[in-house]
What we know:
The chain is mainly alpha-helical. 71% of the residues lie in helices and 5% in strands. The strands form two sheets. A two-stranded antiparallel ribbon has the order 1-2. The protein has a two-stranded antiparallel ribbon with strand order 3-4. A hairpin with a 5-residue loop joins strand 1 and strand 2. The protein is elongated. InterPro entries: Frizzled/Smoothened_7TM (IPR000539), GPCR_2-like_7TM (IPR017981). It is a multi-pass membrane protein. Residues 17-191 form the G-protein coupled receptors family 2 profile domain.
Amino acid sequence: MVHNYTNFTGEYIKKVTDIDIAVTITTCCLSIIGALIIFINLGRTYKRGEHISEPKKLLLYLTIADIFSAIGFLFGAIRFLYGDDISPEKVLACHKENDSGCIAQSFLTTMSSMSSFWWTSIIAFHLLWNSTDQNQSGSFNQSEHARKDIQMFVYHLLSWAVPGAITITAMAKGILGSDLSVGSGAWCWISACLSDNERTIWMAVSGKGWEILMYFSCLGFYMLLKFRQKCAMIRSRRVINKN
């Protein structure tokens, strides 16, 4: 269903149905439950004094980003359910009023979504980078500990600082806000008061661009990992045949 109201960009405002909102709320709740299960399992492992591997730690950081995304989208869906973002008044006024709740939700989901994309790519890269590590016992010398600490610091810097800088810049420039359901679902993201070009650019910079990059980077990393494993298997067979 399409309303016959438009903002100054000339786009039609699509009505988000109750089914859309129900699906959003359901998936967000399931994501939160799944994240809590991961937290509980890793917490039990830590409490027992067992070693938590680096991939599991990276999964934990990814889960933290994902649970913030789910909470943000859940808040956005509930806000949309009881709000009037697609009312004729707000559409014609291009949502000029300052909605702090909408901006806060947009800030949270924008940053956490970008962090999630970064952590997903980093996990793929980490598996590739460490695929030839011969020491799997968990006992590392001092230089290896230092290398891994630096590596983890870089991971955190990329996954939190870069999305944070982009999101803070977007908020400072007034980019975040209600898009009147033009470019997203029942939540806030990029303000509909921007021009077509501005909105497209900021959608790419604050989410879609990183999402597409993540798809291709993960594909490349896992293909290289598979190729490396195949080469290692061939070398192993040659050694066995020689013996």
